[in-house]
Amino acid sequence: GRRVAMIYRWDAKDAAKIINEERLTNFVGVPSQSFELMEAAGAEGLPSLIDIGAGGAKRPAEHVKKLAKTFKQAKPSSGYGLSETNALGCVISLDDYQKRPDSTGRTVPPVTDIKIVKDGEEVARGEVGEIWIRSPANFRCYLNLPEDTEKALTPDGWFRTGDLARMDEEDFIYIVDRMKELIIRGGENISSLEVENRVYQHPGVAEAAVFSVPDEVLGERVGLVVYPMGGAALDAAEMRDFIAEGMAAYKTPERIWISPSPLPRLGTAKFDKLTVKKIALSQPPAFSV
User: Pfam families from the entry (predicted)?
Assistant: First the structure.
């Protein structure tokens, strides 16, 4: 077994202190928490850690690289699952994660099955579709919500996750986006996660959220809110130029806001994108095309 240490409320500095005092070996949290640990660890580091796990949201590929560079003795890992699957889904760690930092891993053996489906049919490798999961751990129903249950579960036990992904030839799965968070700009589908991955490659970005901005002409445009590293100044136009160097023009954010404070979060510590979007749209952006 393992000794478990818990804190009442998340604070990166408190977490780093407890990890060192208790000589803890494993950390699990949402991706933003492991990122904050890098800042909080300081010169002392976290020498007892051997694994830095993440779940609840997709960890930006750039974070995987930075974690491995910061914590030489610790290996980042990540899991994918949902409340409806009792967290069973995929897992990735060690060299697999370093080679494929944008992947969520392979199916957890031996009792979990995953397939990628579009229009009711399993798609070919490399094509994008919805993740369906089937395992003995799947939930039976949403309590007193038969219509929602029918939409989520197929008669033969597959759970429709609402997550878009692709699977490669080696069975590694890559999350593209939540179906509800996909941005459709003039008929072009844009993954908010893909744009966020590019944003996090900028050395001055601590937190970022990408979302759709309503538009009369194109239907939706790409919006971005960033919180700078250490509260430093960021130039929105320079930020857009940086993003544009690594992305197709239609995916590049056309509305950018610089947040003066950390982005709001849910009780799970994940970013509250609905609130981020609501606050951003209530004020003029720092950059607009």
Answer: AMP-binding, AMP-binding_C
d(CA 126, CA 248): 20
List of domains in the chain: 12-80 (3.40.50.980), 106-178 (2.30.38.10), 182-282 (3.30.300.30)
- Runs of H (alpha helix) within 128-261: 146-152, 192-199, 236-244
* Structure tokens that stand for 141 in this block: 């129903």
**Could you tell me where the DSSP H helices lie in the chain?**
12-22, 31-41, 61-70, 94-99, 146-152, 192-199, 236-244, 273-281
* Confidence (pTM): 0.84
**Structural contact between residues 186 and 219, judged by C-beta atoms closer than 8 angstroms:** yes
Token readout for 50 is: 């051997």
Residue 202 DSSP class: S
Residue 1 pLDDT greater than 80, yes or no: no
Q: Which two tokens stand for residue 113?
A: 């099955």
